[in-house]
Task: inverse folding
């Protein structure tokens, strides 16, 4: 299991990308704070000192904000059609099916302790949604 909590085989690339983004962020925070490897300060302490959230948390926030935007646009627009569409017929590959965007939304909602059956109505209430997403 990777540090961002992703288990599916199809998310190997995104897990790899999250690890690289985390390393980039920590490298530059250490540089800004003038902390070297000889100081033996762990990443969690650096994030606590700066008051910044982790890269995974930032990505989840961005995903949920985009989800709010998708729910607010009209049903005829292409992004909303893609959200609710499914492939009619295609050959599935062997193994576990790849995660679709809806599955990613549900996973992020569960990580934020938001009920997955009522998120559509909650996302229509902008103030409440943004308070939960923060």
Result:
């Amino acid at each position: 299991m990777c540090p961002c909590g992703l288990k599916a085989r199809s998310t190997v690339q995104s897990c790899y990308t999250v690890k690289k983004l985390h390393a980039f962020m920590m490298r530059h925070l250490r540089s800004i704070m003038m902390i070297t490897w000889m100081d033996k300060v762990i990443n969690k302490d650096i994030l606590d000192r700066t008051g910044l959230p982790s890269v995974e948390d930032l990505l989840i926030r961005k995903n949920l904000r985009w989800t709010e935007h998708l729910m607010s646009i009209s049903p005829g627009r292409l992004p909303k059609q893609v959200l609710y569409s499914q492939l009619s017929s295609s050959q599935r590959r062997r193994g576990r099916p790849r995660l679709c965007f809806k599955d990613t939304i549900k996973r992020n909602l569960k990580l934020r302790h938001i009920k997955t059956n009522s998120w559509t109505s909650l996302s229509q209430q902008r103030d409440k949604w943004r308070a939960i997403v923060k």
